[in-house]
Write a structure and sequence with these properties.
Length: 81
């Protein structure tokens, strides 16, 4: 099993601290999918931008359809979230 050092909220500085604060404000907590990318805040920022664009940007698919696709893909990948 792989092991990745996670940067905790109390140890976050600069960009990562801002990303964590935004996540906490938005969701009430910091999900593991963010923590696992915490060693490279620029990559985490790009990942969040991709997610935001895919889920909330202009699309022929509704928001519900996009969420449904995300659930199906996560299930097919045996991913709990």
């Amino acid at each position: 099993m792989a092991w990745i050092r996670l940067v905790e909220e109390s140890d976050a500085h600069g960009l990562l601290a801002r990303i964590y604060a935004s996540a906490t404000k938005r969701a009430g907590k910091i999900f593991q999918i963010l923590r696992v990318q915490s060693n490279n805040p620029e990559t985490l920022k790009a990942s969040m931008n991709l997610y935001t664009t895919a889920m909330f940007g202009k699309s022929a698919l509704s928001r519900v359809q996009r969420e449904m696709l995300a659930v199906v893909v996560s299930r097919a990948n045996e991913c709990h979230y």
